[in-house]
Design brief:
The protein is of the alpha/beta class and 322 residues long. The chain is 41% helix and 18% strand.
């Protein structure tokens, strides 16, 4: 009996020891997983993340919508600078996040919010004239990310996907990022499957603003959207993002479709009245046929609305195919 008792005691001791070893290993393994450092090169700076940010501020609408589409509203302490209404599918999540300012917040507001991450969509977001530069905030221990696809020349849909992957990596939600990218690409593929086969895509002029010199899209994301929607941007050869052209240049290229950007202080109705009645522009094929496509600026940015923007353009260019 003593031998059996001794055996049971020894066995129990071994089991407890084994459990103790596992208990010691589990926290160690979890800590290793949580403290893996993510390194991101962005905006000419190197940022290191020992953990996912928990107090992020988004500074432009299209990057706000990326964060919300990734389900990061609980990791945000503020948003700013809407161009127009927030994307309807994201409205509920958006309403959970404080709006810090109609445009860019002040440095004091960012400090008061105890932000640990700043996400800018345009260069003006992380500039001395707005909240301060990325380098200044990095010195104060606050990392940032400037949307690369929004500041590069000739951005493509794949460049938006790269930005989404980087944000997902920073917040340790890579799978969510890949799911969002897959959904966007699937939607674009479905749209393109309905486009007509053609040798000569419709000639497209993107009108942003202006009544003497006209602001238009050259090699920015709208150029890519127009191309993916089966159109040909008449000013695609100009090596700039947004650029000004003369009315004579527009008339010479004779667009078949005019895409009108809807945003800002000039009402859409005023823009349409100008285009239809201008002595030069009214002679273009697009105006004669009243072939216009209306595009909100928020959809024409490097964000999650890319597929919707391409769909809007495709349906406008080739209504008989949709």
């Amino acid at each position: 009996m003593k031998k059996i008792y001794l055996f049971l005691v020894m066995a129990l001791a071994l089991v407890l020891a084994a459990c103790g070893d596992k208990a010691e290993e589990t926290p160690k393994e979890q800590a290793t997983e949580q403290t893996d450092t993510v390194t991101i090169e962005n905006n000419k700076l190197t940022f290191e993340y020992d953990k996912a940010p928990t107090r992020a501020i988004s500074l432009n609408q299209h990057v706000t919508e990326i964060m919300l589409a990734l389900g990061l509203e609980d990791s945000m302490v503020g948003t700013a600078y809407l161009d127009d209404e927030i994307y309807p599918p994201l409205k509920e999540a958006y309403d959970k996040v404080p709006v810090l300012a109609a445009e860019y917040p002040s440095k004091e507001q960012v400090i008061d919010a105890e932000a640990d991450f700043l996400y800018g969509g345009w260069p003006s977001a992380l500039a001395e004239k707005s909240i301060g530069t990325a380098a200044e905030w990095q010195e104060m221990g606050v990392n940032s990310y400037l949307q690369t696809s929004s500041v590069m020349n000739e951005p493509k849909l794949e460049d938006i996907f790269t930005d989404i992957r980087n944000i997902a990596k920073i917040f340790r939600i890579e799978e969510r990022g890949e799911n969002l990218i897959e959904e966007m690409q699937t939607n674009v593929d479905a749209i393109q499957a309905q486009l007509p086969e053609q040798d000569d895509p419709v000639r497209v002029f993107v009108y942003d603003s202006g009544d003497k010199e006209l602001l238009t899209a050259a090699q920015n994301i709208m150029n890519n959207f127009v191309t993916q929607a089966g159109g040909d941007n008449i000013f695609k050869s100009i090596e700039k993002g947004w650029t000004s052209v003369s009315k004579e240049d527009v008339v010479t290229h004779d667009p078949e479709v005019i895409v009108v950007m809807d945003y800002g202080g000039t009402p859409l109705e005023d823009k349409m009245t100008f285009i239809k009645n201008d002595p030069a522009l009214k002679n273009t094929t697009a105006v004669k046929n009243e072939h216009f496509v209306i595009m909100p600026l928020s959809a024409a940015s490097e964000g999650v609305r890319a597929a919707e923007a391409i769909e809007t353009l495709a349906k406008g260019f080739y209504p008989d195919n949709f």
